[in-house]
């Protein structure tokens, strides 16, 4: 038998004691049908709660049946309201409320229901009561013809009006004598503009009638004290307002406490579908896209204001202590949970749960709260709420204060079924621990004043300029930074070269447009200051990038920032899931940009901190680019198809060329791609604005380029280069599979086949991708004339040398024996062997005609130049010049290239270039002839 089918008598696990034994006996005598543990439960309840004693005696006959199946009885109470006539409804609501209050209290006191079940039952009854009252009020408006265009069919959805349950009601956490907080809205889109004012007046009347029906005290009592003051600007707005007006208010004037309130918001009566749509429009207001550590100070200030207003300052003393608002109370646990949710909920939708205990659980699971702290706060929350219920059960009073008298504490301990001294000891211990666990989060101890600059920075006037910077001009930013300043200066003073670290940090700070959010992030996570000092010391250029994109620091706090690289498949799946959850196209593009920046930053930090070597980082940057294209390509197609129909035929694939195809990118790489499509025999698309297949795919490709390169609020994703497509800039931006094959077989130059050795499909349908790859491998396998290939390569090399000269002696890519030279030679090796190998090192090692010593020399040189390239691009976009870099940058490049103390970067560079150039010169020397470099097939 399931618990909900079992009688209450069989589920009792604890019993209250009768504080007034004679009243307990009177209660027991009023229910002669009760026996055993059930009779003891009723006796203990009536002997300690005058309010419940009266209910037991008044509802004894109903209670005899209800205790047999408590859940069924609650369901019947709620469902009965829906069929009650208008004249009888006010009385029926009050009778149902007192019966619900009695049965819920007995299931609570007897331990038959958990706290979650108790608060859920209270909330579901509140939902049913407010739905019944709202329907009745709206029905009267409709029958009087006061709600434009509405009929009786609109009564269940209240003609487009909805009540949003806020606070504890929204989270199914109502307390025993709770009032209910409602925001009443109507969907103005259901009405003609000319009818707007009449409709609003009708909804205002209905709201007032509903509230009065629930709130007014009659001879039968009341239903729920109803508070409508959480609506926008309640002093000047009507009790029911249009959704559009509410949305405008929150977008322009909404405050942190209102964001926190909406964490628990839930449509509870009326047009719940419209209510759900309204809450969805508020999602960007409630859940910020970046980590919002500034919410901590907002919540802390709110706590202080509440304490000041209620006179709740001072140490914890039990007599009269407010279990809700006092130190260590319920509100501190709720604020702690909601603030943590506000901080990170914009980035992680799984944190957007309404319940406090549920919120603590998911915060612990996601690493935002330690497991032991979450478990302790959850246990304290349950205990606090249980005590709160017992305090309220005594006289059905909306109070949260512990008793002030000995008699009151004795009565409370009887209702709790505990010894008084044990109860007081447990209360003191739990309140103290809650305060200790939460106070440090809201008001961390100051790092300590720094009266003067660290010795290493003495004499610098740089810190004196900081108050003039844009990020510090707001009063709040200045206050937070003043608390951070001693720690920042202390850590700068501990850098290897403090003065240069200070200059680098100053460059970051001067470029920061705003400071509140970032400074709040640093204050809550001081370890980020160390990371920032490291980054700016090594790369002032990267520091300036961080000033413009400070939100990337969010990723460091996520918990797995320093974990091993997840790989392309995991990245693609993560981005695809986030894109699926966001329906607006432009927001999808901005989301992709934010996501990409954070992962890009992660690779850079891993490289700087030595968690990745140059080869790993190159692969990681390529994984990121491929995952972005693979996840975004279907999104672009779906958006394009809205107007022009689904892709004709088999669709299109994006082929990565050059470094993307070889899966080796650096921090500033653009993406070389071509698009190949297969329309089969389909001549045009089938959308509302159909396009010929060739035009369709050309414009679809342009849409992808725009999606990747357009400067949006979050910047660009990548620059795209399409020049490696057939016929280069003269050819169409997308090529059909048939045309691509024909061109490669009959018209392509040798250099185009060399480029094809590195080609790799990175996005698009798998079947078409397999066909493209099969053609590539088959085509490249046909080259076996080493003399012809190397002759062409020799001529290409000469033209490149004539057209491009290295900008500086430190050039890693261009020049004899450097990266591009070695890559070209490796592509030739791949083409000659006919094995279509993409990676430079593998291609060199598999060439039978290249001896081991030569292959090793080229491979080592390539590794050195790649390390110099990826490190240099991370440090600066102005080119590699160790002489103009700070010592941090030089040390980073030396470590990355494996340069020992016994040699300099310049010596290693010249040595590798010379050795590699000599090898390539020797193998190409006999093929450096003149002639037509065009090859047909």
Strand portion: under 5%
**Structure summary, number of beta strands:** 10
CATH architecture title of the largest domain: 2-Layer Sandwich
Q: What is the number of domains?
A: 5
The biggest beta sheet is recorded as: 5 strands, mixed
CATH class of the largest domain: Alpha Beta
Keywords: ATP-binding, Magnesium, Multifunctional enzyme, Nucleotide-binding, Nucleotidyltransferase, Transferase
GO molecular function: nucleotidyltransferase activity
Organism: Thalassococcus lentus
Protein name: Glutamine-synthetase adenylyltransferase
How would you describe this structure to a colleague?
The protein has five domains: 1-113, no CATH class; 148-286, Beta Polymerase, domain 2 (2-Layer Sandwich); 294-405, Nucleotidyltransferases  domain 2 (Four Helix Bundle (Hemerythrin (Met), subunit A), Up-down Bundle), CATH 1.20.120.330; 584-777, Beta Polymerase, domain 2 (2-Layer Sandwich); 786-927, Four Helix Bundle (Hemerythrin (Met), subunit A) (Up-down Bundle), CATH 1.20.120.330. The longest helix has 31 residues, at 614-644. The radius of gyration is 36 Å and the shape is elongated. It starts with 20 loop residues before the first helix and ends in a 13-residue tail after the last helix. The model is unreliable at 445-450 and 930-937 (pLDDT under 50). Helix 17 (371-393) crosses helix 19 (420-442), helix 26 runs parallel beside helix 28 (614-644) and helix 37 (852-875) packs antiparallel against helix 38 (887-897). The strands form two sheets. Strands 1, 2, 3, 4 and 5 form a five-stranded mixed sheet that branches. The protein is 58% helix and 5% strand. By secondary structure, it is mostly helical. GO terms for molecular function: nucleotidyltransferase activity. Residues 49-280, 532-773 form the Glutamate-ammonia ligase adenylyltransferase repeated domain. Pfam families: GlnD_UR_UTase, GlnE. This is Glutamine-synthetase adenylyltransferase. Residues 301-442, 796-924 form the PII-uridylyltransferase/Glutamine-synthetase adenylyltransferase domain.
């Amino acid at each position: 038998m399931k618990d909900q089918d079992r009688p209450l008598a069989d589920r009792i696990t604890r019993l209250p004691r009768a504080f007034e034994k004679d009243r307990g006996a009177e209660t027991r005598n009023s229910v002669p049908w009760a026996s055993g543990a059930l009779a003891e439960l009723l006796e203990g309840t009536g002997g300690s709660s005058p309010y419940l004693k009266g209910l037991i005696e008044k509802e004894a006959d109903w209670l005899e049946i209800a205790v047999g199946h408590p859940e069924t009885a609650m369901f019947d109470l709620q469902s009965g309201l829906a069929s009650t006539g208008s004249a009888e409804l006010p009385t029926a609501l009050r009778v149902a409320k007192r019966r619900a209050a009695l049965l819920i209290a007995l299931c609570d006191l007897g331990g038959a229901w958990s706290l979650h079940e108790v608060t859920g039952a209270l909330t579901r009854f509140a939902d049913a009561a407010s739905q019944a009252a709202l329907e009745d009020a709206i029905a009267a408006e409709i029958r009087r013809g006061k709600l434009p265009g509405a009929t009786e069919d609109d009564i269940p959805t209240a003609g487009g009006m909805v009540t949003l349950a806020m606070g504890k009601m929204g989270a199914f956490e109502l307390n025993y004598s709770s009032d209910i907080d409602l925001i009443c809205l109507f969907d103005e889109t259901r009405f003609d503009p000319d009818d707007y004012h009449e409709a609003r007046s009708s909804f205002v009347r209905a709201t007032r009638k509903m509230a009065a029906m629930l709130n007014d005290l009659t001879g039968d009592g009341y239903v729920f004290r109803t508070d409508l003051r959480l609506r926008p600007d309640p002093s000047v707005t009507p009790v029911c307002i249009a959704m559009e007006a509410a949305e405008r208010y929150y977008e322009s004037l909404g405050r942190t406490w209102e964001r926190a309130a909406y964490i628990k918001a839930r449509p509870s009566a009326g047009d719940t579908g419209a209510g759900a749509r309204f809450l969805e429009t508020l999602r960007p207001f409630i859940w910020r896209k970046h980590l919002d550590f500034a919410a901590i100070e907002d919540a802390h200030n709110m706590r202080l204001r509440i304490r000041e207003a209620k006179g709740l300052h001072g140490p914890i003393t039990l007599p009269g202590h407010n279990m809700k608002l006092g130190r260590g109370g319920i509100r501190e646990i709720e604020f702690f949970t909601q603030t943590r949710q506000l901080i990170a909920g914009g980035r992680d939708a799984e944190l957007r749960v309404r319940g406090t205990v549920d919120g603590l659980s998911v915060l612990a699971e996601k690493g935002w709260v330690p497991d032991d702290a979450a478990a302790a706060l959850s246990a304290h929350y349950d205990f606090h709420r249980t005590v709160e219920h017992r305090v309220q059960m005594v006289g059905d009073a909306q109070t949260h204060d512990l008793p002030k008298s000995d008699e009151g504490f004795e009565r409370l301990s009887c209702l709790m079924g505990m010894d008084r001294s044990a109860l007081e000891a447990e209360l003191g211990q739990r309140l103290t621990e809650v305060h200790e666990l939460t106070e440090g989060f809201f008001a961390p101890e100051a790092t300590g004043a720094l009266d003067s600059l660290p010795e290493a920075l003495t004499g610098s006037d740089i810190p004196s300029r900081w108050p003039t910077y844009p990020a510090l001009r707001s009063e709040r930013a200045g206050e937070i930074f003043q608390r951070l300043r001693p720690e920042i200066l202390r850590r700068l003073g501990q850098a290897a070269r403090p003065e240069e670290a200070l200059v680098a940090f100053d460059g970051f700070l001067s470029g920061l447009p705003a400071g509140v959010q970032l400074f709040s992030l640093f204050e809550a996570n001081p370890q980020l200051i160390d990371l920032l000092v490291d980054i700016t010391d090594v790369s002032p250029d990267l520091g300036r990038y961080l000033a413009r994109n400070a939100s990337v620091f969010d990723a460091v706090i996520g918990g797995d920032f320093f974990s091993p690289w997840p790989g392309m498949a995991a990245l693609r799946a993560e981005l695809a899931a986030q894109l699926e959850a966001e329906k607006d196209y432009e927001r999808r593009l901005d989301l992709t940009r934010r996501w990409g920046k954070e992962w890009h930053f992660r690779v850079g930090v891993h490289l700087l901190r030595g968690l990745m070597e140059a080869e790993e980082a190159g692969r990681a940057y390529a994984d990121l680019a491929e995952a972005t294209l693979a996840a975004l390509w279907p999104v672009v197609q779906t958006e394009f198809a809205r107007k022009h129909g689904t892709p004709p035929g088999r669709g299109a694939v994006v082929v990565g060329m050059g470094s993307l195809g070889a899966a080796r990118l650096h921090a500033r790489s653009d993406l070389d791609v071509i698009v190949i499509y297969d329309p089969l025999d389909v001549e045009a698309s089938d959308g509302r604005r159909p396009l010929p297949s060739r035009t369709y795919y050309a414009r679809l490709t342009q849409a992808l380029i725009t999606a990747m390169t357009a400067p949006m609020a979050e910047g660009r994703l990548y620059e795209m280069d399409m020049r490696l497509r057939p016929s280069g800039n003269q050819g169409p931006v997308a090529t059909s599979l048939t045309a691509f094959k024909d061109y490669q077989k009959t018209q392509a130059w040798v250099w185009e086949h060399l480029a094809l050795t590195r080609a790799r499909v990175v996005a698009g349908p798998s079947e078409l991708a397999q066909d493209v790859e099969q053609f590539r491998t088959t085509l490249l396998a046909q080259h076996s004339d080493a003399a012809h290939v190397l002759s062409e390569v020799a001529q290409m090399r000469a033209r490149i040398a004539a057209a491009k000269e290295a900008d500086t002696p430190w050039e890693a890519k261009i020049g004899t024996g450097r990266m591009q030279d070695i890559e070209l030679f490796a592509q030739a090796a791949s083409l000659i062997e006919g094995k279509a190998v993409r990676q430079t090192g593998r291609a060199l090692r598999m060439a039978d005609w290249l001896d081991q010593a030569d292959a090793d020399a080229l491979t080592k040189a390539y590794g050195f130049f790649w390390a110099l390239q990826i490190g240099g691009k991370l440090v600066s976009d102005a080119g590699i010049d160790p002489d103009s870099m700070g010592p941090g940058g030089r040390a980073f490049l030396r470590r990355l290239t494996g340069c020992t103390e016994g040699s300099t970067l310049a010596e290693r560079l010249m040595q590798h270039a010379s050795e590699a150039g000599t090898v390539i010169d020797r193998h190409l020397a006999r093929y450096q002839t003149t002639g037509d470099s065009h090859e047909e097939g």
